[in-house]
């Protein structure tokens, strides 16, 4: 009678296993897993089960009495992001249940498996490392990033050119200064933007004619 009872109990026990998700040190991102907030927990979802496991002092998350099936494991943490995992619990020949852990990606088909993270027969420990830290506040940009702006660099260059040009002209030798003045005189009034704007005939421009005020006066005399 006792052997019959044991024979009924042991097959039942062999149909469930324990899955442990371990968070090891991951420098430089997470050198000490003991600094994880106590609210860190993991969830395990399948078609028929929705389980949750808290973070233990040994930085592990333990799911007990898991049966055959396919699960989605997520580690929820306030400060770090962890990858979602696909957990497959299958039957192995002569060894009961076995576990296979794969990295998965949201939005992909369930059959598309990522990197294998671990597995084996019986109770299994799978190491899960964080992907990155979470940022809830935008850092204020410093003065250096402001000065690196292209518009600011152009404005500073123009300002330096305007301020430094008189000093540059004063330090020129006489021959260079004369050559510069000759070049400016050859360009004529067109080189002076202020005079060009003053002599611009806007009425003639709008009427489809170019040139300055003199052309407009000639057109007026022709019409008269």
Automatic annotation (TrEMBL):
Keywords: Membrane, Signal, Transmembrane, Transmembrane helix. One of its GO terms (cellular component) is EMC complex. It is a single-pass membrane protein. InterPro entries: Beta_sandwich_EMC7, EMC7. It is found in: Membrane. Residues 32-154 form the ER membrane protein complex subunit 7 beta-sandwich domain. Residues 1-16 form the signal peptide. It comes from the Eukaryota. The chain crosses the membrane at residues 151-169. The keyword NADP does not apply. The keyword Transmembrane helix applies. This is ER membrane protein complex subunit 7 beta-sandwich domain-containing protein. It comes from Viridothelium virens (Speckled blister lichen).
């Amino acid at each position: 009678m006792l052997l019959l009872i044991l024979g009924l109990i042991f097959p039942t026990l062999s149909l469930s296993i324990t899955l442990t998700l371990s968070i090891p040190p991951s420098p430089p991102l997470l050198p000490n897993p003991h600094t994880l907030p106590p609210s860190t927990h993991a969830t395990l979802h399948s078609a028929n089960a929705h389980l949750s496991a808290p973070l233990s002092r040994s930085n592990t998350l333990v799911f007990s009495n898991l049966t055959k099936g396919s699960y989605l494991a997520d580690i929820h943490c306030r400060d770090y992001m962890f990858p979602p995992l696909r957990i497959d619990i299958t039957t192995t020949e002569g060894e009961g249940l076995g576990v296979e852990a794969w990295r998965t990606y949201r939005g992909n088909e369930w059959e598309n498996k990522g990197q294998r993270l671990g597995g084996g027969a019986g109770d299994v420990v799978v190491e899960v490392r964080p992907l990155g830290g979470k940022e809830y506040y935008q850092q204020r940009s410093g003065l250096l990033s402001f000065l690196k702006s292209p518009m600011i660099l152009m404005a500073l260059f123009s300002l330096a050119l305007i301020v430094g040009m008189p000093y540059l002209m004063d330090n020129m030798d006489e021959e260079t200064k004369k050559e510069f003045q000759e070049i400016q005189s050859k360009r004529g009034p067109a080189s002076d933007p202020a005079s060009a704007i003053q002599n611009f005939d806007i009425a003639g421009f709008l009427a489809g004619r170019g040139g300055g005020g003199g052309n407009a006066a000639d057109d007026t005399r022709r019409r008269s």
